[in-house]
Amino acid sequence: MNETLARPEAATADRPHIPPPDRDTRYRRTGDTESVSGLVSELWRHSTTLVQEEVELAKAEMSEKTTHAAVSIGAIAIGGAVLFAGFIVLLQAAVNALAPLLPPDIAGWLAPAIVGLVVIVIGFIMVSGGIKALDMKKLAPRRTMDSLRRDTNMVKEHV
Length: 159
Prior knowledge:
Elements: H1 3-6, H2 36-98, H3 107-133, H4 136-139, H5 142-158
């Protein structure tokens, strides 16, 4: 067999030895000098930056949600304090005002029961409002979740 055919890299008298290129350049775009490994590296760098930015967004959003939760918990605590203070003060005042209007034989227990029930209903309404403000759906980091969905869809489209 001819040596030139067996070893194509061998130099001949009319053709000098030219080493093969380090990488295949046939599929490169004009003006684009990045290799596949360079593109993968850049994709990794951008993905890492994107994840870091998403984490920062999640932290900021959770901080905002934590503040909202703290305000709601404060409303519950204040509602509970009002409930307690209202129970004590109004109970005594209403008992004293209601007792003369009731028959004397049942006024001693019915007047405090009526007043206590009214105060409990008011306190329950206040505490329920605070609990509704703590709805877990409102505390979820919506913007971060939406952004992650968009990023996932974008990566799926480009891969």
